[in-house]
Amino acid sequence: MGAEDTKIQLMRHRVLALGLAAMALCTSVNAQTGKKGTDEFRVTAGYTFGLTEGAGGAVSLTPEYGHYFSDQFYFGMGTGISMDDSFESVAIPLFARGEVNFPTSGSITPYVSLAVGYDINTEGDNSVARINPSVGVKVPIAKNTLFNLGFGYTRTIVKGGGGDFLGFTAGLNFDTRGKGFSNFLKKLNHTLELEAYTNFGPDDKGDNSCHSSKTFGLRYTTMAEVAENLSVGPSIGLGRSNLKEDWGDENKIYLLVMARGRYDFNQVQVIDKVHPFAQLEVGYNAFGGLEYAGIISVNPAVGLSMSVGSKNALDLSLGYYTLSNGMSGYLGHPLRIALGYRF
Prior knowledge:
Shape: flat
Order of helices and strands: HEEEEEEEEEHEEEEEEEEHE
Helix content: 10-25%
Structural class: mainly beta
Strand content: over 45%
CATH architecture of the largest domain: Beta Barrel
Radius of gyration: 25 Å
CATH class of the largest domain: Mainly Beta
Largest sheet: 9 strands, antiparallel
Number of helices: 3
Number of strands: 18
């Protein structure tokens, strides 16, 4: 065998070795990913804006649940709430979404996705179908928890036409590591609360008189711990409010759909088994009945939590609501007091 043949054989061996190394690297990356068979719960906030003049925009909050059929391919379904950026109309989206991930040797995972769905408008017949391709990245921030950031295009389809929108999304993905959704639920904190609000709204506002009293109800919140002492999750409230207006008194059903973040100061013990916490809620409310749909609330609160078992606690909190869209002058700024049982 000549020197030239030896060089060719050496090059072949090097190429083969490089190929095997690349395959091993890919296998290693996929093994690190380990997504196949995993269930995932995702909560995403988004904002879209129209590409034509006067199209406006919309904000949304959409929980989603799905399954990884391979390390790369995910399919899920979700719903939520969507409001135009003037907070005057509300829609309930129903959608299915497919996602393809591109695992890397680093911590960042790029992805592309396609969502198809239908938005049910709560007022009138302005419901629309949607197609939404997007791209994004996911970054781990805690054990079994990822932060996702995306950018996409949305095409709405209605009779006689449609619209074109661009939008941004950000949210959290909670990975069950293939042990099923029921196991994932066991890791969540659930809270049931009795809540009451102070009388709010001036007795007279211009030519209208509006005063709400006897406002109380129930709240259900489920939260996942995303970092030490820090939990986030959705919160839904339903209750009764007596609304006094020019034409008389009316009993209204109020609805709250909020996103809650909570930090427990476990390292601070007020007395035995009692520690303080702070929380912040942002979301949609209809304190004066559903005709006041589209009011955005921000609620900072503080409280005390007393352990009554290994995982159970009693919570007492006091919070303050701010209202947007000019409704603060009409409905005021109510204080909220709540007694909850966390399990």
